[in-house]
């Protein structure tokens, strides 16, 4: 599938402002900006296996499109939500357990890069990955 394979973060756009809006403190934001995140995506039909490896943690996650699951961000923020495919877009909608606000994430392939876009409480950001 299109998303399958290993991806390494190459650059970010407005990521610090996004993390600030999410309530992440200055020290954690500065560290996260240099997390060397690598994501490996494996799609088999409507099932996905995701492995995230960064300077701070390694996480493996399995999910099925359209099925709600629980997830914790690297800073401990707990979310509940699901992913859906809309054409060539992988769209996630997650609700924060602490304040009920929605975080949306969209993954798409643009010019052979994986572009992961985020939107939270009026602030948008992107992280762009290259094949590892």
UniProtKB/TrEMBL annotation:
InterPro entries, per the entry: Calycin, Fatty_acid-bd, ILBP, Lipocln_cytosolic_FA-bd_dom
GO molecular function: lipid binding
Keyword Transport: yes
Stored PROSITE patterns: FABP (PS00214)
Keywords for the protein's UniProt record, in alphabetical order: Transport
Pfam families, alphabetized: Lipocalin
UniProt domain Cytosolic fatty-acid binding proteins: residue ranges: 5-22
UniProt xrefs under PANTHER family: FATTY ACID BINDING PROTEIN
Name of this chain's protein: Cytosolic fatty-acid binding proteins domain-containing protein
